[in-house]
Every structure is written in C-alpha cells, then in structure tokens.
Amino acid sequence: MKPGTAEKFDETIPMPKAATRQEGELLLTLSVGGKEVFRDTKAVSILPPAKADGVAGVGVYDPKGKLRAFLDSTGIRHIPVASLESLPSAKVLIVGPDALSETDATSTALAAFASGGRAVIVLDQTNVLKYQALPAEMEPAERTRRNDFGMEVPAADGKTAFLEDASHPTLKGLRDKDFFTWPGDHWVYRNAYVKPVRGGKSLIQVGPRLLNSALVEVPVGKGVMYLCQLAVGAKLDQSTVAQRLLVNLVEYGREYRLETANIAAVIADEQLGKAMDAIGVQYSKAVDVLSAIGDADKKIAVISATPANLKTLADNMAKVEAFWNRGGYILLHGLTPRVWRTSIGSSASITSSASSNASE
Q1: With bands split at pLDDT 50, 70 and 90, how would you rate the model's confidence at 338?
Q2: How far apart are CA 198 and CA 218, in angstroms?
Q3: What whole-number distance in Å separates Cα of residue 222 and Cα of residue 210?
Q4: Which of 36, 51, 316, 319 falls between 20 and 30 A from 158, CA-CA?
Q5: What is the mean pLDDT of residues 274-301?
Q6: What angle do CA 97, 99, 104 make, to 5 degrees?
Q7: Could you give the CA distance from residue 91 to residue 249 in angstroms, rounded to a whole number?
Q8: What is residue 224's three-state secondary structure?
Q9: Terminal C-alpha separation, the chain
C-alpha cells in the first residue's frame, strides 16, 4: 500500500467450537520488515450453538416464514398456526416477526390465550401490542426525539441494550456485551416500549436514559407474555445471541408456573397499612414478628421496624435463618441507622445477614 492510502477488505475467521460460553481475545498485529509496529486486541465471546432438548408442541404464528428453519435446527418441534382466531392448545405460542396487523395489535386474543396458563412470545413487531391488548400499564416509546443539536433521531430503535435483570432465566448465558451492534445493519432493537408503570417487568432496558424496554415480562392470569422488540426474528440467521435468547424464552415459557407469595404483616405504622391496602397487596395480619416468620405458608414478612420488633428478630436468629432458608423474604419498613443500632447492637454477623435480606 502506498503511504497515505487505505484499503478495506473482508477476512473470514473460523470460530473455535465450544460446549459452553468461552471468553477470549481477537489479536491484530502489524509488522514491517519482521518488526511489530502495531498491536490491538478486542474481547470476544464464543457461544455454543443454541439447542433445545425435548421441546415439543410449540405453536408458531409466522406468516412470513422466518422461524421455521431455525426452530427445526434447534430441535424445537412446532405446530404451524394459520390464524390468531384458531390458536392450538400449546403451552407456548411464538408470534413471528412482523406478524401482527394493526387490528391484531389491539386485539385481546393473545392475552386471553396466555391467561389460561400458557406463555406467549411476541417477537419484533412493527405493529406492537397496545391499548386493550396489553394487560399492563405501558405504551410504545416515541419513535423519534430531538437531540442536543435539534436533530430528529431514533428514540425507539437502537444499537445498544442493557440487561436489567441478569438473573432472569430468559437471559441465561447472556451478558450486557452481547447486546451491542448485532450483525448486519448493527441494529439491536426497534419500536421499544416505555418501561411498564405496573403489571409488567422490564428485562432489557434501552433508549435515552434507559427509560425504555426491549424485552418485557407481563404476567396475565395464570400465564405470561414476553414482548420482545429486540431484532431476534430478523437476525436469527446471523446472531448467536438472538438464537440463544429465543431458545431461552421458549424453554422458560414451557416451564412457567404462576406462584403466589403469601404475605404476613406486622404493622405498627398506620400509613404503611393504608399504602398496602391502596395498592391491592393481599396479606394477613400476624400477631407478632415470630408468628409472621414462623408460618410455613408465608413467603414474605412485612414488618414495621420498631425497636421491639428488631430486637425480637435479633434475639431469634435461628428462626430468622430458618425462614430465609425456606425461601422467605423479610421487608423492614421504617428502618433507620439509629433504630438499627439501638435495637440490635454491634453484632456484625447479625447486621450483615439481616440487612442483606431486608433490602429485598
């Protein structure tokens, strides 16, 4: 190459095979006359092929036919669905990319189907679900916004997304770095939602100040809906991350079961009781702290953080530990450093153990 010129070309690099996720580096060096004059490294991740063992009976509404080849390659046995008016009795239903019409986007058909204890996975749509079709208080994000220079820029589309609940089973084996400039045109999501106010949970956050969501979990009745505006359907043939995410959604959707966490409350603050009643929390009043955590049927104990209640907890750590070990959560209301110190004292082990669970 002549000095001052540039040349661009594609280089195909075979990826190593991996049974589990592996981290590595892509190393680029430039040598002149046998002497290294430039070196650069990029962190890379190698993901294993997405496979689903023993998954059968998945309904697929995919008028554009973008999912069949991938589902066949992963071993997911599926049932074609011709219309939303004739849904099968499958445990999981996948709605393919851009499958919904404007009429479908406001229909309650998918929510009604999910409410019977099924999982509905709605992949990247131009006509996103809205109004009565959404059993959650949320809405589509504005398509554009003005930046600091007064220019109209995309607000509901983007090339970077971030995990909001990395522990969720649908995101198993995936990390933040996986949701950055996907192959092809580099878009990662489009037509995002504003994060739900209530009735849903954002799993992947996006957009200006991360106020929007590209993957939302919406419980409905005994079932669940996953609204996925990541470019999964559009990039199944290019992105290993998109493939892994779809398999995760199908596998978890098949196993989804609604669990009710029974709540016991020990309330000394009248405002706390009014607030819980106002937002519709269903709970039973316990006689005292030990009754609240001693009831095997209760998973959550809401306790007013009075000095007496905190001292009772500190004096009965064996019972507190037993409650935690069976999956219980303690929520302390009105806790202050002064009350904590005067009630429990300076035991570091008690303070560390109790405060970590109180934050839940």
Answers
A1: low
A2: 9
A3: 30
A4: 51
A5: 88
A6: 135
A7: 12
A8: strand
A9: 61
* Separation CA 160–CA 189 (nearest Å): 8
DSSP at 50: P
- Which residues, 6 or more positions from 256, have their beta carbon under 8 angstroms from its beta carbon? 119, 223, 224
pTM, two decimals, is 0.77
In whole angstroms, what is the distance from residue 195 CA to residue 206 CA?
9
DSSP 339-352: HHHHHH-S-HHHHH
Q: Give Rg (Cα) of the chain.
A: 25
Q: For 15-64, what is each residue's pLDDT tens digit? A: 888 999 999 999 999 999 999 999 999 999 999 988 887 788 899 999 99
Per-residue pLDDT at 354 exceeds 70 = no
Q: Strand 201-206 and strand 223-228: pairing?
A: unpaired
Q: Is 32 helix (H, G, I), strand (E, B) or coil?
A: strand
Task: Name the β-bridge partners of 137.
Answer: 198
Distance CA 175, CA 163 (A): 7
Residue 340 pLDDT greater than 90, yes or no: no
All domains of the chain in start order, with CATH: 58-255 (3.40.50.880), 263-358 (no CATH)
- Encoding tokens for residue 263? 């709540």
What gap in Å lies between CA 191 and CA 230, rounded to an integer? 9
110-148 per-position pLDDT tens digit:
999 999 999 999 999 999 999 999 999 999 998 777 777
Distance of CA 221 to the CA centre of its chain: 19
Q: What is the DSSP string of 304-328?
A: E--HHHHHHHHHTHHHHHHHHHTT-
HSE-CB at 13 with a 13 A cutoff on CA atoms is 10
How far is residue 360's CA from residue 272's CA, in Å, rounded to a whole number? 17
Q: CA–CA distance from 107 to each of 91, 126, 135, 198 (Å)?
A: 20, 15, 11, 20
Question: In Å, how far are 73, 186, 239 from 235, measured between CA atoms?
Answer: 15, 10, 6
Residue 249: phi and psi, rounded to 5, are -60, -40
Residue 311, token pair as written in the block: 């001292």
Calpha distance 284→306 (Å, rounded): 19
